[in-house]
Amino acid sequence: MSMQTYIVLYRDQTLLPLDAPLGFRCQADDPDHAEEQCMDAYPDAEILWLVETADVNVALADYWNITY
Length: 68
Prior knowledge:
This protein is an alpha+beta fold. The protein has helices at 31-41, 56-63; strands at 4-11, 22-28, 46-51. It has one domain (4-63).
């Protein structure tokens, strides 16, 4: 199985309630692996969304259900 690029959207204590989520880009075997990598990098993060893409804008649009 080859590694895929994922964007994990997450929140931490630095964000205000209406701030956009932060994005974590990684190479992972599957979505669970991507989430694990984000939690390893940011242990206090709250995972919100995960998308198989290299573009954080695509992940944010998917999170907010925006279609172009």
